[in-house]
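Propose amino acids for all 251 sites.
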């Protein structure tokens, strides 16, 4: 089992059981105690889990995935500013990828480009796009109720047959050393595929996601343009591309 999968499984087990011992992890994952202890130390350094003598428990401030309804009620002002700016980037006749998520949902009412086609994995997005008479392609696959997102192997394979002029992808965390991360492997694969298939991919998020790290990386910092309301000073020093809701950019 590769490290990324192992870390994700450790985090899931910690979340399911509240806490898990080193002995349990050794048995479940089929690796040595030394490997588990090293994993737990590295995961604690990155604030994914908290260790105790003989085991670990999840760090909920980093890992917990709020329901879509809760996420839509947080940082509303910042999300709306970013959403308006993102929607203005869409041009007539483009093929657009719109990820599931509260900020991408906010974009829809501000889209004024004509004759576009939007591809989405967001359940809430489908009816809103229809209400605005926007041509929509709905991706197929299993539904994750907590994020109201379609994500699975079939979803990824379908995305790989498409090309997007522009893509807007959400994230659970932006970490200076790891990049863009999320809490679920299936959604991570969907996001990664959309970024890869887009001429111009954007990570659209409010600034609360900086310095947050989730177990599954889906892209490096240089693979997409960050579109947000503000950039921490530490990130301004990195070789990244970003755009703010007020239109300021560094590329």
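Proposal:
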């Amino acid at each position: 089992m590769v490290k990324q999968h192992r870390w994700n499984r450790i985090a899931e087990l910690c979340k399911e059981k509240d806490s898990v011992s080193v002995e349990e992890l050794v048995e479940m994952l089929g690796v040595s105690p030394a490997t588990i202890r090293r994993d737990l130390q590295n995961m604690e350094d990155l604030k994914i889990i908290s260790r105790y003598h003989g085991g670990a428990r999840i760090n909920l401030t980093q890992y917990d995935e709020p329901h879509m309804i809760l996420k839509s009620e947080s940082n509303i002002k910042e999300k709306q500013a970013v959403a308006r700016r993102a929607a203005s980037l869409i041009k007539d006749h483009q093929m657009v990828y719109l990820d599931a998520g509260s900020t991408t949902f906010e974009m829809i009412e501000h889209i004024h480009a004509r004759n576009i086609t939007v591809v989405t994995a967001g359940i809430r997005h489908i009816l809103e796009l229809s209400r605005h008479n926007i041509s929509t392609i709905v991706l197929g696959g299993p539904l994750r109720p907590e994020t109201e997102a379609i994500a699975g192997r079939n979803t990824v394979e379908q995305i790989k047959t498409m090309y997007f002029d522009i893509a807007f992808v959400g994230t659970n965390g932006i970490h200076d050393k790891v990049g863009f991360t999320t809490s679920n492997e299936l959604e991570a694969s969907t996001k990664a595929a959309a970024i890869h298939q887009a001429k111009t991919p954007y990570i659209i998020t409010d600034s609360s996601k900086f310095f947050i790290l989730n177990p599954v990386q889906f892209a490096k910092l240089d693979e997409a343009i960050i579109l947000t309301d503000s950039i921490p000073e530490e990130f301004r020093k990195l070789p990244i591309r970003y755009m703010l809701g007020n239109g300021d950019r560094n590329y």
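Residues 3-17 form the longest helix (15 residues). The chain has two domains: 3-63, 68-244.
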